Fold:
Amino acid sequence: MTRVKVFTNILKANDSIAQKNRDIFNKNRVYAINLMSSPGSGKTSLLERTIESLKDELKIAVVEGDLQTDKDAKRIEKYNIPVVQINTKGACHLDSKMVDRVLGFFNFQEINLLVIENVGNLVCPASFDLGEDDRVIMVSIPEGDDKPIKYPVMFRKAKVVLINKVDLLDYTNFNMAGIKKDALSINPHLKIFEISCQAGEGLEDWFDWLKEQVRKKRDED
Amino acid sequence: MTRVKVFTNILKANDSIAQKNRDIFNKNRVYAINLMSSPGSGKTSLLERTIESLKDELKIAVVEGDLQTDKDAKRIEKYNIPVVQINTKGACHLDSKMVDRVLGFFNFQEINLLVIENVGNLVCPASFDLGEDDRVIMVSIPEGDDKPIKYPVMFRKAKVVLINKVDLLDYTNFNMAGIKKDALSINPHLKIFEISCQAGEGLEDWFDWLKEQVRKKRDED
Structure:
């Protein structure tokens, strides 16, 4: 009982700082996404592909959440875009305060897309609003098709599901129609993309969708 | 600061109940493992293969930790062994109290191996002793070879690492020598098995190791 109350208070504090972050994103017309998945689904690879293709069209910046290494941040740094590493020191998710602390490192005049790559975890990050416009979840073929049923909170609050590693589809018993049906039964508004970051498949639709969101945010009243 | 203290108190309470669970396992000479991995690495498939092969030699029972479904428990139930489902109601890990609450459902006279399948998560479960004899971590090829470096706590406290889905090795750029080197640099005592639950590869060594542990526990003074 005590733990539940502690958690409720933590979430309330988190929400108020998330709103502060959101105000900053809105004021600067920066479209912000919170990118979440299991460890090893391919979040950083998605970022690499996305930056490679869109860095001349969009002004992209990245926040990298990680338990203790800067491996992922180093993978992004080579593209010469603004990237800030948050080391959670063992915490299993980002919270809005961690993000708040690093926003000062960015020049938001020079950014229109901010991607916050969360810690690899399908559970805890779902509870913590970071102030993002939208949540993007990635699942990958080898993880199996039962993720929406087993982690419904994550899917309920998301805007997009990226199903990665479709190049491995033939080597598994993954049920693509099944996972889509399950995900949409939890959240009928989900946009679902089938992609392979390694093989470069299906990414154009994701790029187009992303550009559309950035444009909408820029032009909104 | 406050959060850290709360967490420390929670862990202290957890450790004392874990010791109570451990006493029960020891008194009954039951070898207990805490099986952990990311979502979708193949923990339940490993259990299926292990039960199929060893159920006549060992007296196996299973505790299934899950956020909210009983999908995994149902997969185990069909083998007619004792299985109890713990529904964590959203909590991202098992704790010793959750396990304590279900131990009464088992007849330990009829069990010599208890496998506790934790919630799919490479972070939080690492902090919570359940009273197990040993921790077994599973990682799988498509998740990538960077898991030891990114989740060192998990590896530091483990006895065994199972590298699953080796049948997918040819379709990825997974560095097998690299992950082993990284894992052993964190924990030189790790026992590492390369397996494929789907293709049935490499499982004999795991079975032999498991039987040896059960035998040791039975024969210990």
Q: What stands out?
A: The first helix of chain A runs from residue 2 to 27.
